[in-house]
Model the fold of this input.
Amino acid sequence: MPVSPDELKARIEAQIPGATAEVTGDGHHFNAVVAAPAFRDLPRIAQHRLVYDVFGSELGDRIHALSLQTRASETESKL
Amino acid sequence: MSDEPNQMRDAIQSAISENRVILFMKGTPEHPACGFSARTAGILQSVGQPFAAVDVLPDPRIRQELSALSNWPTIPQLFVDGELVGGCDIITEMHQTGELHEVLGLEPDPARQPVPEPPAVEPPPLSIETRQ
Done:
């Protein structure tokens, strides 16, 4: 079953509190830019792990490749 | 049979402890089999960092045990001083910010040094022109 960038975006935003994600991709290779307050004070590797954890074993399988940039966002919410 | 994965894991663990800088990749630095592995190996070469490289492709258990050990799902994986530093995205970003040089213990990249300010030339208190 093909994967859509929108699905990845929705799952990242649902699982990481306060996260905003921009995801592009062709159904196999994806690029995601994720900002979340939870990333603050975490080393990059831990930030990426939080995102990888959303997808678990789907990475490398159903989601062939996910290129990732993470940023700590300033505020909890911009509502 | 059941201890085979542990043998593989032990071998990976030894390789990580015995090599200060070690890259697990698809293919070899000379013949990378994946763009992400190629880019990561290329960055290490471009900064002049000697490194050990392990091709994960010949045996699927290498990748399986490596990811179980490192808790990192993708290849490539770069380890420095026994610690996972990251994959292609993180290494690329750290290279851009200069953090990679720090982690590797390299001299800071001269291209990234702040350009020294030219000595401030104070305007002379008087502007004197000599006329013939």
